[in-house]
Amino acid sequence: MSQVNVTINGRQFRMACEDGQESHLQQLAKDLDERIAALRGQFGEIGDARLTVMAALMVADELAESAKKAQRLEKELATLHDAQGRLAGRGLQHRGRADRGARKKTQPSRRGLRQRGAGLKAVPDSADQACWHAPHIRITLPVRGCGVR
Q: What pTM was estimated for this model as a whole?
C-alpha cells in the first residue's frame, strides 16, 4: 500500500491506495477539489461541509446516470444480437459484386426489421458486406458467416 497526500477544499489528507494507483487517486482528489471550487464560485461561502456534500451528490448523480446509460446500451446490444440471430436464422446471404449477375442477393426487408422493433437501418457498406446501423452499435454481416464489429 502506498501513501498519498491530497488537497481537497484547501485541506491536506493522507490517503492509502494500492501501488501504482497514486496518480489516479491524486486526479480523483483534484476533480473533487475543482467541483467544490466551482460550487463555491456559484453559491458563495455556504460552509465547507455543505459544499463537500453537494460535490459528493454531483458525483453520485453522474455515477447513477452512467449506470443508467450502460444499462440502456446493454439492452440495445441484446436487441441487436437478437436481431442478428434472427437474420442468421433466416439464412441471410449477401453476395459480392463478382456473382451479382449470376445469383440474386438476399437481404432482410427493412420493413420487417422495423416491425420487430430492432431499430436497425440497412446501409450498404461495401460490395461484400451488408451492414445494419443502430444509434451506437454496428452489425456487419460478411459474405460468409455472421459477426459483430
A: 0.54
